[in-house]
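User: Please predict structures.

Assistant: First:
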Amino acid sequence: MAVWAPQTKEETTTKNSPVIMSGYPAQPKWAAGLYRYRLGDVVKVAGFYNATPKLKFVCRRNLMLSINIDKNSEQDLQLAVDAAARAVLGGEKLEVVDYTSHADVSSDPGHYVVFLELNAADPAAVDGDVMQACCDELDRAFADAGYVGSRKSGAIAPLELRVLQRGTFQKVLRHYLSLGAPVSQFKSPRCVSRSNSGVLQILAGCTVNVFFSSAYD
């Protein structure tokens, strides 16, 4: 029988003492033979079969963006943003001031969210066709085979592009400074986790336009 241990908790969830937990790396321990290994996947309890928890895969540990079998790093995100900016925004004399991302698993299937702050005087007034093309290009620019396959099969939902107000990342900076972070060490987060509700609220409040990719329709 396998028991599941949340990495940051002392208590172990067993068949006889199930606990609802979400977002813990799975560490199965097999009762027979003291054999143990670590998967390194983040799972959540999606329900129970009798008293046994049924686990649902959430994402991979130590990867910046991952929802299914996809694996995308900070560099992969940067390459995707650069490719979209080069292919679409450059011709409109638009530049990316800053960007970040979020793996949204609040719905099933989950999807990537990319937040862009542009140099436009009025980001809300940027041509919608241009930003839709940018969104599609972003989605296609993630070349990881796991991502492409998951998008084609529908295991990952269309990428979401959120256009931000000018000055959004200054608000993010002030948020971190209010928490005691030194300004000299600040770097814009390239991926905002679900636990970072403060930054997610700033990004949501500063969103002026939203687009969903049609790249794999």
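Second:
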Amino acid sequence: MGTNIGAPLMDIVLGNLGLKFSLSSIALPMIGIAGFAFLIFSRYGKIKNISRAFV
């Protein structure tokens, strides 16, 4: 299920960015934000699962 969500989402992100910079420049901040959300919102199931998918 993760690849069914992740691959189209990545295509949308890269399409909107126009490949003007490398993916690695946004990967670490995305992981950090998802980890922070996982720690803060771990009581809420939906947000916990979404942040876990990003991490």
